[in-house]
Amino acid sequence: MHTWLRRFYGLIAVLGTSLPIAAAPADKSSIESASDYRIVEVAAGLDHPWSLAFLPDGAILVTERAGRLRLIREGQLEPEPIAGVPAVLSGGQAGLFDVVLHPDFANNSMVYLTYAQGTPSANATRVARARFDGTALLDLEMIFEAAPTKDTLNHFGGRMAFLPDKTLLLTLGDGFEYREQAQSAGSDLGKIVHLADDGTALADKQAFVGAPARVYTMGHRNQQGLVVDPDSGRIYETEHGPQGGDELNLIERGRNYGWPLITYGMDYSGAFVSPFKSRPGLQQPLLQWTPSIAPSGLALYRGDKFPAWQGDLIVGALAFSQLRRIDLDLQGQVIGQEILQTKLHQRIRDVRCGPDGYLYVTTDYAAVGATTGRVLRIEPAAAAQ
Q1: Is position 155 annotated as part of the catalytic site?
Q2: Structural domain spans, the chain
Q3: Mean pLDDT, the chain cut into blocks of 10 residues (385 residues total)
Q4: Which of 61, 81, 314, 370 could form a disulfide with 346 if both were Cys (CB 3.0 to 4.6 A apart)?
Q5: Which long-range contacts (C-beta less than 8 Å, at least 24 apart) are formed by 212-215?
Q6: Which of 179, 183, 84, 175 is nearest to 131 (CA)?
Q7: Marked catalytic residue, from 2, 48, 102, 155
Q8: Is residue 66 a contact partner of residue 79, using CB atoms and an 8 Å limit?
Q9: pTM: predicted TM-score of the whole model, two decimal places
Q10: In sequence order, which ranges of the chain are alpha helices (DSSP H)?
Q11: Tell me, what's the pLDDT at 364?
């Protein structure tokens, strides 16, 4: 076995689905070294790159939170943004968020975007789709807007993932000051919603009494990661807790994930959000982090470049400028976690498994030692030989 496969930093055993796990402390003896893997810069000069998507021709789409969609082609960031992007509300945590391709992109060229829309006093998360002709977005249409609007620039959610039947899941945050609406059947806030690929309602029966059929799950805070395992069909999600209580969840339709009725975190004032960490009928996370790691993008590794990671989750940790590997067993349960790197000194915003089998991450420049956002590729060190 290669040396780097044995260097597990911060490996924590998990003996169930609800045992609290604290974030591992920083350690000067990081496993990152020339014998482990290398980090390759794909592009720099980006303004808070939030998400990326891989085109069939090898190019990469990248969203910038300020409201621009960029293109990396043949290893170069094209100087001009892609035309046709919708108007975006930018400021605070608001902006342009996720970009995903329709499962039939090769035939229909459809690109989906999530973004904040409106004004600081009345805003919401939207989904739009358009055809991408290689240089611009054409025939843009807004296909969904969360309701009700809110007057905060926080907790938009905005992650998307297509299910095997080509329907769409969308995360919607609780709006920060509207956390009680995460338990309100009549509100989209604090939910994951299920939509047809054109944004219309599905013919599903209600998962929750009094809620529209689109409400897939409820009781979420600020969901920043969402991924569907193409092999098992399992859906995984990460979300920010308040002070502590960040979560990795296994998402199942009709389940209530508890926020704010239960949480492992504390309010920023130091008061209890809730005195309960568990209650009957409310889902426990697969994994929770206290203190918070601020989990960001989430990927499930199904490539061929890191065989030991097959079927595991890779999550960014904004608070510690880290990548973490979440080791899963064949039943999708957490059996450990490993810190993959600690030396970037940049916040990891998105994590994706590329079609080439390498990992790709976007980094915020709002961190120590960084002046611009970047797209990076993580390769085994052997790839350099």
Answers
A1: yes
A2: 3-384
A3: 30 28 31 62 94 97 97 95 98 97 98 98 98 97 98 97 97 96 97 97 90 97 96 96 97 98 94 95 97 95 94 92 93 92 78 96 72 89 63
A4: 370
A5: 215/185, 215/188, 215/191
A6: 84
A7: 155
A8: no
A9: 0.89
A10: 3-6, 105-108
A11: 84
Place of tokens 């076995």: 1
What fold does the segment set 3-384 form as a domain? Neuraminidase (2.120.10)
Cα 93 to Cα 327: distance, rounded to the nearest angstrom = 30
Give the DSSP H/E element, type plus range, for residue 228.
strand 222-228
Residues 226, 232: Cα–Cα separation, whole Å = 15
The span from the CA of 333 to the CA of 328, in Å, is 5
Cβ burial, residue 367 (10 Å; 0-12/13-18/19+): middle
The whole-number pLDDT of residue 2 equals: 33
Q: Which amino acid is at 60?
A: I
Round to whole Å and give the CA distance between 148 and 163.
26
Other C-beta atoms lying within 10 Å of the C-beta of residue 53: 21
Token digits for 29?
Answer: 């003896």
Can you say whether the dihedral through the CA atoms of 309, 368, 157, 222 is positive or negative? positive
Question: Is the dihedral angle over the CA atoms 334, 10, 310, 106 positive or is it negative?
Answer: positive
Q: Tokens 């490993």 correspond to what residue? A: 338
